Amino acid sequence: MWSRRSSIIVLISGNGSNLQAIINDIKRKEINAYISCVISNNEEAFGIVRAQESNIPSYIISHTDYKSREDFDNALQKKIDEFSPDLIVLAGFMRILSKNFVKTYLGKLINIHPSILPKYPGLNTHERVIKDGSNEHGVTVHYVNEDLDGGPICAKSLLKVNTTSEAELKNQINKLECKLYPAVIKWITNGEMQMKGSKVLMNNLNIGSQGITFEDLR
Ligand code: GRF
Questions:
Q1: Which one of 88, 131, 176, 185 has the fewest beta carbons within 10 angstroms of its own beta carbon?
Q2: Ligand 1 atom closest to the CA of 114, numbered from 1
Q3: pLDDT digits over 179-196, tens only?
Q4: Is the distance from the beta carbon of residue 138 to the nearest atom of ligand 1 less than 6 Å?
């Protein structure tokens, strides 16, 4: 069945490996969508090069050019609204977004976080997991609401921790991210997954507060 291709905007701050995974799955026609633009708050983000290499329009909106978080978010919002996207994907976007911004795009804004939420919200998750001697780690994709890393959960991918090297763990987690994020984006853009109130539905059924869980997607 033919369906309209969804438009996605990806917000980044750095390397853009998640962006690349999404680009690759769009090219492979795994995801029926197109990236209308990539926006970075960091002009040195390698993700900008990745976007250019795939002929995706990219914009730098640096938070350092704005007096307040609200001013920056307004500039971001103005650029986003030029494209009327169906979905806004935070892919390593290292800025906390204002309440107003989040409210504007509620249900259309998703994030990937390198931990099994609600465990380890915030930064330095790999370091904290190793320090605590946790035997399980993973990644979570969630809709963004006003709570930091606390919005309704779409999906998780878990792994058993078998290293004390932060770099190695980060690398293992990144592999999970690059599989999980495109999978969730596929579900959302083809209309299978959606947020309703504080719940995530898959084919109109509530998937529960922990989302769809994969043991290890590497
Ligand atoms: C990922 O670990 C993501 O979970 C976190 O920031 C990192 C971004 O990596 N929020 P990349 O820029 O996609 O390579």
A1: 131
A2: 4
A3: 999 999 999 999 999 999
A4: no
Q: How far is the CA of 20 from the centre of ligand 1 (A)?
A: 11
User: 16 CB less than 6 Å from ligand 1?
Assistant: yes
Q: Is 113 considered catalytic here?
A: yes
- pTM to 2 decimals? 0.96
Which parts of 37-194 fold into alpha helices (H)? 46-53, 69-81, 99-104, 125-132, 166-189
Burial class, 68, CB count within 10 angstroms (exposed 0-12 / middle 13-18 / buried 19+): exposed
- Separation of first and last alpha carbons in the chain: 31
Please state, rounded to an integer, the average pLDDT across all residues of the chain.
Answer: 96
Domains of the chain: 6-112+139-156+184-217 (3.40.50.170)
DSSP 189: H
